[in-house]
Sequence to fold (1529 residues):
Amino acid sequence: MSWYKSFYFALGLGLLLAGALAPALAQKNAPGNVDPDPEIERKSFQVADGFEVHLYAADPLLAKPVSMNFDPAGRLWVACSQDYPQIKPGQKQNDKIIILEDTKGAGVADKTTVFADGLLIPTGLMPGDGGVYVVDSTDLLYLSSTKHDGKADKREVILSGFGTEDTHHMVHALRWGPDGLLYFNQSVYIHSHIETPYGVRNLNGSGTWQFRPATRELNVFCRGLWNPWGIAWDRYGATFETDGAGGEGINYTFPGANFVTAVGYSRFVAGLNPGSPKDCGLEILSGRGIPDDWQGNLITNDFRAHRVCRYVVTPEGSGYTSKEMPELIKTNHPAFRPIDVKMGPDGALYIADWYNPIIQHGEVDFRDPRRDVTHGRIWRITAKGRKPVERPKLVGAKTEDLLEALKAPEDWTRRSARRVLQERGAEKVAPALTAWVARLDARTPANESALLEGLWTYQALDIVEPRLLTALLNASDYRIRAAAVRVAGMWSGRLSNPLELLAPRVQDDEAQVRLEAVRALVQVPNVHAAELALGILDRPIDKYLDYALWSTMRELEPEWTPALQQGKFNYGNNPRRLLFALQAAGTKDALAPLVKLVQEGKAAPETEEGVLTLIAALGGPHELALVLDRAVDDKVPAPRRAALLAALDQASRQRGVKPEGDLTRIEPLLKSDDDVLRVVAARTAGDWGLQEIGRLLWDYIHTPQTSEALRQAAVDGLAALGGPENIAKVDELSRDEHYRPTRRMGLIALTGLDLEKAAKNAPDLLKALKDGEGAAEVYDAFLQRKNGAALLAAALAGQQLPADTAKVGVRAVRISGREAPALTDALTKAGGLKFGAKALNDAEMKAMVADVQKSGAAARGEAIFRRKDQLCMKCHAIAGCGGQVGPDLSGVGASAPVDYLIDSVLLPNKQVKENYHAMLVTTQQGLSYTGIKVQESPDALVLRTADDKEISIPVKDIDERKMGGSLMPDGLTDVLTRGELVDLVRFLSELGKVGPYSVSKARLVRRWQALTAAPEVSAAALDNPSLRWDSVYSTVAGLLPLEDLPRSGGNAAAVRCQVEASTPGPVVLRLNTAKGLRLWLDHKPVEVKDATELNLTPGVHTLTFAVDLGQRKEALRCELEDQPGSAARVRVVGGK
Amino acid sequence: MNLLRLSASLCGLAVLAAPAFAAEAFTLKDGDRVVFVGGTLIEREQRYGYWEAALTSRYPDKNITFRNLGWSGDNVWGDARASFGTRADGFKALKDHVLALNPTVIIIAYGGNESFDGPAGLPKFVEGLNVLLDALAPAKARIVLLAPLRQEDLGRPLPDPTAHNKDLLLYTGALREAAKKRGLTFADMNEFLGDGPKAAPLTDDGLHLTGAGYWRSAFALEQALGLPERHWRIDLDKKTVTEGVQLGKTGFTDAMLPLAAPPEDEPARPTPAGRILRYLHLAPGRYTVAIDKQAVATTTAEGWANGVTLTHGPDFDQAEQLRQAIVAKNRLYFYRWRPANETYLFGFRKQEQGQNAIEIPKFDQLIVEKEKEIARLRVPTPHIFSITRGTDK
Fold:
């Protein structure tokens, strides 16, 4: 039992108190009355085997630590903020920078100094240059003590203009890079405009800055992530970041990388662990204090679920793979909030614990009395049985000794020694450094690491050293070559021959070196750099290389496009290179050379489709005709013709451009044997207004053999043709009682042609829909159009609808985020619906919170959560598996107090999770769309709608956009009894807490697709592409219950899942039992055992299981395990 | 020991003034609302307050309020104010913020950031400047166009500013031209910062003033605006007073407070306009002058006859209190007009924390109270001067 249970009891009490007493008193009782005794907290930790945790410092020595860093003297500097999240009127800003010291070397801080106070939410700090760099809301300050008495008496503003739109997004995570630059991150809501002696530097949204204080040069290193909270370099300078608001675990980054949210960019680098919780802080373990099997591991914090996490990254191609391992620390202590992590001078790992039951301030009221403002801890983690590393004396050490310290096994020591050398300055250090480097023979591989440290030291001192650089560009260890390439890029403006140095590295045998080289070439802005970069296409390309080249070609575009026009761009006469460049640039200038390629027949078969698609995307009527030539050429394979025609259709829809000449040439395509081609042709014909083919479309609609897709395309095509005759036909469809699917299609199409008539026909159709199935699209069609809601409301007056159909309508109105009270009213009356008051008053809330703790059953709650009619999993994922519309709920119980969970279920709009705000867009065509913004490029805005579909809206068509609330409609839980609601909330409140509802680190299959109602389950049947597979999900524990599965062919079911191999090889598929199963790997039968070895080629593979439900009753649990000795890297594909 | 107590009204005594800049005389009036707008130069001023303290202290009997709308990185298009929006949104924010304050005087400091676009960017800047001035015209305010500061050469590794300074002159010329065309006040501090190449730098990165830089430039600003210099001289003569006798009843009262002393941690630099106290015809010996019993200077009779520049004393103390009150007011106003967490309080996530937006207007009352304090502190108080003869050395 223990304090765990007593906490729940106490939380209820705490809430009662909070409501009744003055805030000050309530705050005192706040963290749910948990005893703030650090020892109680420490004892709650479940620590990885072989490690132990000790308290280094605690309140009242420090309160609310938000960021920490050691100085080379081994003192720990901590930024503390009690003013977060928002200064109150009348409150004096008084946040602090404190220094903690362990003067006796006992592993405990015994001296605390308040170095500075009077600050406002200092979100980051870094000691250096004798003082400390501190982020103070809008400013980067430099605070120093001129009297050297441990108190800052001098305050300089170094940079100003950082945004404060969100105080947990402000600039943070300050760290010295290996290059001696100060790196810091800012997050997605922040917009910064900084004046430097070189001009204004801007960063809208997230990214990582790099700054050299001595020269005041400030640049953006990479962009994106939601809240890039941690940054770390491995000993070779490979750079990683974590995201405190995103869900992709470890992110591998490099100069100019753009991650999700990067403002103004449409293409992103993905993180290494999709479906992970949010992480903050990042450190890489190294040195003699760390066991061998933990060396080089990445440590970060899942602050929501009270976990200190461990990842192992492994190089793969030009990037890395990353695997999450069991936690270093986990606990259910509600206030343990690990938010920063750093290695210390003694080889131990230090964790800053913000200590707060409340996190965040978006969802939780700024003034929630449970916010803790007085506590905070620093924990020290050591490996049992290892001697502490002797703390190196670096400050004041002889330069020669500092240089020798660059060979230390501890990253901390090398980094700190480099800092001391940098601060000592070029004049004092350069001679000794030169001599030290000269003594290390670069031809000896064992010296390469030390020489890299030497190179970085030169860089930190801002001395260009071409000889050492050249030696390391040719190092035997590829990681050192990669590091040297990055330095070469940064020095390129001061090197006489940067391209000569980089050229061999573009062709390096190792992909990581090629990646750095392609990115370094951006620093040499001329056409030859672009020509060189394209050379990487001669070797295998992976996703990072593709991205790196794409971004380099885009950034260098002003250099090479003029050359191309003048015929001076040397792309080696290689169409693939040219196509890549032009696709990356995406400008009209690309057209002429592309057209030339096609006309001269020089486009190789494998590039031709790309060339033509690009021409279709950019060209005018004349060029589009060239594409049409190919699309109608029956020597070209059907899928390629379909793709080309689709590109032409898009040109017509998005740009209003059609090929010149005879368009009826596509008529034979409509009669093709290939259904996909027919579908595209039907749509295109409609969009092109080919009235001649109306008859043909009409025939397709009425032919029973027509596929569903073609029928839909035919209806859409007919609607696009327009004209009185076709409108009459569509109207007829919408009233035709025989073909229900076409009737619905017809009505939806009619809303775009004659809204009034559509409204008139709507009630009869809606009445005919069973259980409201398919009704949502009908409502959406009206809601999308101006006056649509009002007309439909009028048409429904006095009518009766099945309750379910009416409910779907009310939900559709809510999801749309638009005001349509008349329609809601009409639907409520027509369906005889009753909507109760949902907001709980204080007493009801307290009672429900108490019941959740007392009688809520998580297992029953999970069953409710999984109920199909409850729709939860349609939008929400757990461990990345489930709908992608709403937030992943894996850690929600550990991060959100129960009352907030109740509110979120009952009143979804009261607190909306970061990144889940709907955007309401109205187009010039008068159409309305509602969805979560996925990405935006200069051309198109992509939204994810409430039914988890992505729609792309041309930016030029957008008339108005505004932010709305949640996509989650109110009233989803109306159908639940109070007891069921209590169970559901209990389940949510357990998610992420240590116990049965925390997501295991095992590679479990969690997302399945189940075969829906097929006549039989057989190999032949599974191959049939027209069968429908619907997503089903495992429980949090990783079990797929069989009773929910749709039956096929009597008493059988079929489920499938996907796995992706990034490195090929054998892997083990582990089942709880193979009983009653048959297995196919990509449609090839495999003998299934409890542990089945699968030898996988690179790419995505489908595993299909046939389940004999007569034989097997056990739920299905399926896990991937590494095969000992195998290099294979395989992940389970998640998602919706 | 000689004890001499003096008292006389300073007002008519010796405040020497000569407008250094012959443009139309700039002055502030009772009831003026002065709005500063610009980039980092303006934004950081609010944290030091020397400019505002200088202008405030000049008009002790007038109620003049100041609002600082500086925003780092900003330009005539309001780019830094766009937040989540477009350039048009940034410009609208700039315009709306200024106009909402009902300014009677607007001090505009743009052109520095824009100048990094070089000669090619000049036409665009002129266009943007005119659009801005048109947009602010409805305020019917007296407008001052402040020239950007020349970039200082602080040596390598900071950049050589020669090329940029050429461009700056182009942009400064455009500002001067616009001011002339529209009949606005144009103020160029650069002309009055001429301490010579060996003077201590005013910036720490070539562009941005340090605390001492703001202090030093406050005098230059006054000169550039054509305000009288802050010369102050009192001549006393032993013959005019009788030992131990107090003259008058009110003591010395300054016409205006001096500017607060520069930050302590900055290198010493000459005071551009001094307060000089001369004492003639003293018998040989060392004398200490105290103001309100606070010793302010000790020197020989000869030294007193030559005049002593005062750099501290009760007036300076009060001036520092005034400056600090201004800085405190500006901080409150910053919380008010540029609150953190705007996204949650007023932006697209206001349905979550919009309830806390009610806190923000509560700063208004605190600002009113601070301004009462400023109004009290800006008025000089009477002082008693005394002179004491020490032991001869």
About this structure: Chain B touches chain A through 52 residues (CB under 8 Å). The mean pLDDT of chain B is 86. Residues 1-17+231-393 of chain B form one domain.
